[in-house]
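Model the whole thing, not chain by chain.
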Amino acid sequence: MNQLIHYNQEKNIFHLSNNKISYIIELENNDYLIHRHWGKVIDNYNFSNKPKLKKRTFAANLKEHEQDYSFEFLPLEFSTLDNGDFRSPSLKILNSDNQYITRFKYVNYKILDNSVTLDNLPHARLSEKAETLIIYLIDNTGQVELQLFYTIYSDSNIITRSTKITNKSTAPIEIEKISSSSTDVLYESQEVRSFSGTHQREFQLNTKKIEPGLYKTGSNRGASGPQHPPFVSIARDANEFQGEVYGFSLLYSGNHEEIIERDQYNQLRIQLGLNSDGFSWTLESNQSFQSPQAILSYSQEGYNGQTQNFHHFFQNYIINPEWNNKKRPILINSWEMTYFDVSEKIIKNVINSAHELGFEMVVLDDGWFGERNDSSSSLGDWTVNKEKFPNGLESVVEYAENKNIDFGLWFEPEMISPNSKLINTHPEWVMRNSTYEPLQSRRQYFLDLTNKEVQDFIIMTISSYIENLGLKYIKWDMNRHMTDPYSLINSNIKSSTFMHKYVLSLYYILDTLVDKYPQVLFENCSSGGGRLDPGMLYYFPQTWISDNTDAFDRQSIFYGASNFFPISSLTAHVSDVPNHQTGRSISFNTRAALASSSNMGYEMDIINAESNLKDKIKRHINNYKSERSLILDSKFYRLSSPFESNISSWMYLANNGGEAIVYVFRNLYKINNLNLNIRIPYLDENAVYIDLNTKHIYSGAEIAHSGIAFENPKQDFIVHKLHLRKL
Ligand code: DGJ
């Protein structure tokens, strides 16, 4: 492997590069880290873009005799308060005299020939295809050390960053803000893209022109949240297919912030990290604090190029290697079939039908434990409800095994119901303080995960079910956001520190379980995609991305999430009509095609389905099995956006380029849409392809540049599918 990181002593630059990208930092005056370039690879950098500084009113000067030299005009690698920068600081650290620590200066650097792991936090997995630059700085007055981490990979257009603070003084210091990355770049960028949403409407695209001022998204809900998941992109004249796109994400599942600031000189700053609103962390003498990793992507090939970067990186460096590219089971989940009304009899019937139809797994969702007949009780009472399952779950699991069907189970381990036995035995396990009555949401409280006893209880409960039943799959749900962030047991934890401690505790629990049971498939869920972020992806190879199973609404949810998440990590289920969330009735064919666009399963009443529907399900499952590896392990490209038109379209291109599946969903029928035409780039333009369904022959060039015209029948919500093979 060629060396990826160089320090050029003559030019005083750190240059991180592989054959695609470069990231260049100048060490100016042997003190300051100035950002010089991030983008396409540059072999020989000679400061061509170094801004010509000018004396400006209001600027505070770093050097007494150089009035044009101010932090305000410099593109920085990190920033502090009160030193003339005046833009959003990436660090806010108070010393014990309540003064901000602001004057960090360069000390030295280290280059490691691998990536780095982070204590207590999920991180890009250790790799020798990477190198890491660590730059050490110190504020001598405050005796605080700052370390900036940069990792670059030989096979990826991604750079990860993280920040570490060490208190070398004798008194405690208080961290109020620590960005994982702060980048001053892209003076001409036009737009910012982020995603927003809520329950049943996750990952909706927002595009905004970047105006002067400060724009911030994030979460203060104790979870990354569906409202603003931790992803932003900055782009110049880009679309799905072309243009420069800079993408940012945070490997974290709790409160986060993304800050975009356009200043008075048109400079642009992008910061990512723990949400600084309401955050603080006390660092005693000799203690360190490390931020989560930020993931920075550069694409020259538009948003699809950015997707290739993230998919490749998540697959190779984030998802549990045990599960990456491993066959994902086609499951039937009980939720939309029975809701809380589950029983041995019903589940055995589900198993019979699942066996008949070709399913590989049955998942028993909510309602199987305690006295759980609705959402008002029993979270925490993880004992099987004997009225519903008189012979325990063992009998159901055995029944499934005899039919060669795997069995999976739902839990919501982080919660406790006010109406539960657990709360009577352990009232002190509720996350709350001693004065306020905690707020309920979905009639439940959080457990105080910072309490070691609670951690052990969750690990023990889940372990015993895995071991006693031989579970192959667990759906880990989390259905509320955080209020009352306090611990009765660890009452010294400040509320401003608690939410991060909670997430660290959750990671500890997940680490322990995933490590202990690598063969178990853990599926992430938070009322659907309420905690869909790279941190959770590290532990959960797949996520139930929305409780909205409507085949129209799901197009945009899937389209949004597919920007970052590999297809195998996004699950989708075929459900009944009229759809339970929207009341809409869409044909089976379209519903099946939409679910088949991801990691596919079902949650519909397969017991009482008519024989005609059962035939369709059987055929659909059979067909998906034959295409599964192409869908889940290929290059994914978006072709037409539901956010911009009546048509959603996407493609799966085999890694060897020899085969492709293309879906085209046309939603409302419109009288004036005569021609339904989609152009499909990314194929080999010099090759000829056959559509395996119609046997039509097309050249790669004509599909890319003239497009393919599809039938446009008088009907809403239709789907077309091409299955192309190179001849
Ligand atoms: C919310 C999840 O998103 C649903 O799929 C289901 O598991 C329910 N919780 C159960 O309460």
